[in-house]
Structures are given as C-alpha cells and as structure tokens.
Amino acid sequence: MAIHPESGPSKVIAAEFVKRSRKVGIALANPYGRQYTAGGDQGLVDGLEGGPDFRTGEWQGYEGVDLDATLDLGESIPLKEVAVRFLQDENAWIFYPLRVEFAISEDGKNWKDLGPWRRKPLP
Questions:
Q1: What b/e readout covers 38-59, taking b as 16+ CB neighbours within 10 angstroms?
Q2: Model-level pTM?
C-alpha cells in the first residue's frame, strides 16, 4: 500500500513470493518443448505451480521425448514424500504420462527404485 499526502492511501495489493534453496538443482536429459518452457531450465524446481490453463506459460511440456530429470537437493535430507504434478487437456492434445518412475540416490551413482506410478492408457 502507498500513501499519497493529497490523495490518501492506495488499494492494498498482495503478492506471494516463493523462496527456494539455491542448493536445489535439476539436470534434464531431454529438451522441453519451445511452447511450454515454464520459465526455463529451472522451471520444474522454482517452487511455482502451474494452474489449470496451459497457455499461461507455467507448465513445462515434452513432445516426442521423455521427461528424464535428475534433482540434486544439494545435501542429504530425509524425504517423507516424492510427488509430481501433471496437467491434462485433451482438447489441446496434452495428456498425462502413461508411466512415471522414481528413484533416489545418496551419491548419484547407486539408485534405489521407489516403484512406478502408472496411469491407465487412454482408450
């Protein structure tokens, strides 16, 4: 809010800021689509979530290649949950993946499979 001596106070405007650890990094094995960048290479770890409309630029999309991402948390920390969010909009030919695999590693060399997340194929 700003206050002008003659016109008085302005309307209150609020915004949410997300601060992420500078330690978190991501390595992408395949390029994302030019239309769906989510702001660039760090788009999947910037703490910002995409909304229900793919046209806002908040989503990162892949076409013809798999999303193969390795997250580096910068330090060893206990994890309670590993999750991912997807957008589906059949009218725009945007579909959920058929399969997602998760694995964790302390050293980046030895991986423990956490099991796949599977979605039923479309008819």
A1: beebebbbbeeebeeebeeebb
A2: 0.71
